[in-house]
Amino acid sequence: MLTMLDFYESPEARDAPYKTRLEIKKLPKRLRLDEVEDLVEFSADLKTFEDEIAPSGEAIFARANKPKTARDQANSRIRTVLGQFLAARSEMPASADHPDYEIVEAWVRDNEGFVAKGDLFPQGRSAAIAMLRKWFGDIALRDITVTDVQAVLARMPSAKRRSFGSALAFIDRLNANASGLPPEVATCLPRVSLRVADPDKPVFWPDLPAPLRRSATAVFDALLMQTTAQADAALARIKAGEDSEIVAAEVNAARSKDVTNPAKWREGQQGHVSWLYRGALRRGRRPQCLEDLLTLDTFEAALDAHAAAVKAGQVRPALETTTLKTRFTGIIQIAAKGLKDPKLAASLQILRNTREVEVNNPYVKGLSKGADALIDTLHDGGDALYRRIVTAPDIIAEEVRARLEPWEGMPRNKRLETLKLGASAAIWALQLCRPRRRANVMFERLRAARDPVTRIALHARTLREEGRDYVSLTPKGEVKNLRKLEFVIRAQDAEILRWWIEDLRPLYLETREIADSCYLFPGAASPRNLRTGLDLPPGCVSAAWFAEAWNAGAEIVGLRLTTHQARHSAAVIWLARHPGDFAGAAALIGSSERIVREKYGADDNAGVAAEARADSYNTYG
Question: Helix or strand or coil: residue 499?
Fold first, then answer.
């Protein structure tokens, strides 16, 4: 098997144009390798290049005026020479993409937009054909078979499987309506369905038998009884003549931690039961009640199914997630508190102990692997990367202004993309002033949240203008750790926020043709998974829209970063400027000093040591 070290040392790499040679020499640094020889760990093929190498190097390109453009140019140069290297060794098909893809993709692109406005497909649906072109480009679209699909799935990363499955389903839908398509398009479609039968496919809550769902729901309802309700029920039993000591002991044994967000908790428990049911199917069983489902044998079968999914690349390895820890914790609680079966709970706990390495992975108590990688990237990029993050709202706003210039001749979908990028600038401004969880930004309100029928105010607004500044105040009841979040948006951040509120937001409502709402970022979605007592009206953006807006800005900035990871960035930048000030970092991201010290303390100690050495040398040297 050819490796990237073979490519690095090849004649094609040595004889490449000067700028290309420079980019190839950066590969070890881009991949954070200690030595050039470590490139031997990476396969020399275009899939590995696109999945692992092309997205890397954020710290390297941070100093460029346009990091994304610089990285794209570097990738293009390396990709060209890598293709020549593989072709010379017969490791890459010389044929170009089959024209089937271009014909179908062009037709879908011409008919995508807004279904409510009469378009055949939603905006972006042509990306499904582009994805198939990427994986099957050397095979004609009409000639793809289930065998080809299975071969691709065998080497595809788990993160891409959902979108790949969606692309296959879209092709199947086109095939089902082939009689209504233009002949030149219909003839390009596969001759067979591309649906792949998977005996180990995930099982979801609606797929479960109705009796099992009812049985589990009854247990969930009992577990959701709050302390007051449990006490009322116990008092009624005592008044009816039962022994008070026995009743008190039973209540204490059944009592579980109060749940602050029942909808989210219930969704998690449904996921645990569905996961177990998949194990039962592997044993050839279809239980109809929770008592029959929750057995040691079923749990072991579910673990086997999970291990098979990891091996097939369908889910991430156990050491990179807390999935098994969450499953064990939730199901043991159901056994002990819901079914009141201490023997089963003890058996599951022993089973958990046998999987200690998988359950207690290195990231359970610290940052995730992705967060660790982000922090490493931030430290590698240093001041150049910090500067791009700090000025991100201005960078994004500048791009929006440039895109707004040809507004009159711009198609509607492009207008909405541009305005979504304007929302991204405002979101980045808010997150850099005070990093918060996604829901708190999504539900930021310009006006009070009112009942859509009675118009009675349910919750006060969270954003108000104060001179040229804005003040954001999120009540503690809307915050995960029940701590009030208040901060001021000033200077350039306030100007970007004002630009969104006064100019872009009204234009967005008009262009999208939706009603106004109380939310800073209006939409057509309804808030989901709210904690008890928090009733918010519809009219917010969806989680998918919010993620798209944020990612559009991240692409302009040149850094792969989620909204939640903005909290990590803020803490790292704060500690870079104020070594050892964990209290300040904790106040900034709305966490505790202990947690900040645990998560970021190891890296910050180096800064403290360097500062101490410099100070002592200046004094005594």
Answer: helix
